Amino acid sequence: MNIAIDIESFDRQLPFLIADSKSLQRGMVIDAPGGAKLHFQGGLVRKAVDIPEISQYILQLAVDIDVGLFSAWLYDKLKSRSVERVIINRVEITEITENSIRRVITEQIEERR
Q: Fewer Cβ atoms within 10 A, N terminus or C terminus of the chain?
């Protein structure tokens, strides 16, 4: 099962922090806790003032994924950064918390079963 995740942020270093790498390329696979894999799809850079960049990922879920562990990991990467919103399969999260990330991912999994 695959779930699209877009992260809008003013922090240009955030994708590198998520990947735990000094370089990024489209298609790069990031091993995440809980049995999940994030596939970096690229970024959208907007040249206007006060408009965040968008980093795009595909979350590939294993059958036995630990959503709580993955959500905690992702939230830990985002919590101290200038993140405007996270969009998970077109569901917008503006109050970014570990619980909100977990809730939306869990809902997406349940909808597809």
A: C
Alpha-carbon distance 101 to 67, whole Å? Answer: 9
Please state the three-class secondary structure of 15-80 as a single string.
Answer: HHHHHCCCCCCCCCEEEECCCEEEEEEEEECCCCCCCCEEEEEEEECCCCCCHHHHHHHHHHHHCC
CA distance linking residue 71 with residue 5, whole number of Å: 12
The Cα 103–Cα 113 span in angstroms is 16
Confidence of residue 4 (pLDDT cuts 50, 70, 90): very high
In the chain, where the domains are located: 2-112
Whose structure tokens read 């503006």? 94
d(Cα 113, Cα 80) in Å, to the nearest integer?
34
Determine contact, residues 96/75, Cβ cutoff 8 Å.
yes
